[in-house]
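Here is a protein:
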Amino acid sequence: MATRSKVKVLGTTYYITTSGSEDQVRRIEEQMNEQLAAIQEQRPSLSTLDALVILSLNLMDEITDAESSTDRMREQLSQYLEDAAKARMELEDQKRLCERVTQELEDEKRLCAQFRQELEKQKRQFDRARMELSRLGLDEEQ
């Protein structure tokens, strides 16, 4: 919501409409007067208009630098977001791979258990056959 504020710059009162808070308006008013005083102190022969033009140029330079910095930060943030999205996709790929390998391991464990059971079954049959051969007197030792 825009409000109307009274600002005094170099002794002249101005009324501005702003969406900023009253505290913000006071800080801007104070900074502007301090910077204008510093310009006039460095170059006392300057007119008020010239001091205001120099201040405006300085502020425009600061705004341009801030915009450039903001653009660089946006580019960096975009790159970070792209990198994060790629990392997230790679993580999902790795999770799927891990799930697949885990499933394959479980399948291999089941297969090993089946082989172990089959081996035990074959061993029991072999032991029975050897006992039968022994009973018949046809064991290997004779």
